[in-house]
User: Fold this.
Amino acid sequence: MIRKEIIDPRRVRRLNPLEESAGPVIYWMSRDQRVRHNWALLHACEKANEFGSPVEVVFTLAPSFLGAPWRHYDFMFRGLEQVEDSLRAIGIPMSVLTGDPATELASYALKVVAGAVVTDFSSLRLPRSWKKSASEKLHCALYEVDAHNIVPCWLASTKQEFAARTIRPKLNALAGEFLTPYPEPAPRFQAAVVGHPAVQWDSLSSMFEADRSIGPVALKQPGENAAADQLQRFIDRILPCYMESRNDPNAGCVSGLSPYLHFGQVSAQHAALSALRSLAEAQSREAFVEELFIRRELAENYCYHNERYDTFDGIPDWAKATLAAHADDPRDHLYTADEFEHAGTHDPLWNAAQSELLKSGTIHGYMRMYWAKKILEWSDSPADAFDIAVMLNDRYALDGRDPNGYTGIAWSIGGLHDRQWFERPVYGKIRYMNAAGCARKFDVERYIRSVKSGNAIWPTGHWSDTP
Assistant:
């Protein structure tokens, strides 16, 4: 039985005032699509043990999610199929509901006379709106557990933080309390699942009308097991060179974890602990944890406290002012969204980055910054540039529609979490990047050749703000 004190109560918050009862406990899985290292599942098991009730995992599938194409649904479905198998192995059934998430979840909870519902946390508007609606429709208590962040987002800070330097001390002050190992799920009173119907994943896949012209990425295997393998490979082989070579797209010294983190197929907390316990030099361990913990949770903070996180309107006022002052500056090149999408610019380096995104669903973290900044430089307006970058990232990147991506674009185009730089045409006081600067960092021609030949090192890193 899981001891109550194992799960820090500050990871959990109640979303409605209704009482819990001895009925089945539902874990409404959403963002954290894994069995291991999952505080939300652990809390659901804890609740079930408390009342001597069974626990069930329910996943709700909306007809569409922010325009996600088939590439993303395929990655998610194949990962969830593994989740169902793993749950069944420990005696927990899984059901998938289709339709409006809040309505379907509330209806199902009423049907099984659920005693409580536990869900995981997202800082994005749409999932938050589903939870708000569900809190009003449910007949029982609804709890939210931040299983995605090391420090719960609502506890880390009560406001939008200015930069990494302002949130870092807050996160570090709580790291000792929250950066802890995980127990295993222990559903003691679980009913037999032998008779529970298996999810018909093929049927679910066929019913979705997502854009199938953007197909799966063959070289990137989804799921919790693949994520665990990638993490171990990174710790054993790549982390030792992380500090020295992470900004070189030719070196392959990045984690490759971003898609798995986005779909919740690996725990950031477990990944950070694994890195800190490794034999790599302290500088590499600390640099990785800085990206995974501080920068990533800074992005969560931005989206949680700024409703306009995915629009130009969300960037800082000083950035809006400086970009507006240079909005009419002549551009050496102008491209439409379609030309950007099809890698049709004059710049072989930018085209290589976009081609990498099209082929692999990823862009190396350093190249992502260059990619976004050149969209600013070659678009009709800064607002258009922001929209184009969001569209391309959300449409093609396996880690699209994510706080990390929205924040990375806002940093690159809108100066978010950055300081004001020397003023120049088009960019104003936004930090500038160019191909010559990239050439000083790495072998640009080699990178372009590798993308063209299909021999590029595909594992992706996080958006970075340390060029």
The mean pLDDT is 93. The chain has 20 helices and six strands.
